[in-house]
User: Which sequence fits this backbone?
C-alpha cells in the first residue's frame, strides 16, 4: 500500500511544506516524503498518526536508524 499523490499533497500542506524534523522548507530540501514511524514490515501503515513528513535527508537518517535498531545493515 502506498500513498496517493493527492493524500501526499494534503500531508505536505498540513505541515506547511516544512520538514517535521529539520524544519526546513521544501524550497530548500525538495519535496517532502512520508516517513512511517512504525515501519512497513512491522505492520506500519500510512495512517496520519504513523506518518512524519520529512525531507529526503531526514528520511534517510530515520530509515537507517530504524534498520540499525533492528540489527539490519
Ligand atoms: Zn529534514
Assistant:
Amino acid at each position: 500500500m502506498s500513498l496517493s499523490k493527492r493524500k501526499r499533497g494534503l500531508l505536505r500542506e498540513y505541515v506547511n511544506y516544512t520538514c517535521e524534523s529539520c524544519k526546513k522548507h521544501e524550497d530548500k530540501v525538495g519535496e517532502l516524503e512520508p516517513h512511517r514511524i512504525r515501519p512497513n514490515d512491522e505492520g506500519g501503515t500510512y495512517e496520519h498518526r504513523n506518518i512524519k513528513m520529512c525531507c529526503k535527508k531526514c528520511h534517510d537518517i530515520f530509515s537507517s536508524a530504524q534498520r540499525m535498531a533492528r540489527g539490519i545493515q
User: Anything to note?
Assistant: Residues 5-69 form a domain with the His-Me finger endonuclease fold fold (CATH 3.40.1800). Residues 19, 21-22, 24, 29, 54-55, 57-58 surround zinc ion (CB under 6 Å). The radius of gyration is 12 Å. The beta strands are 33-36, 51-54.
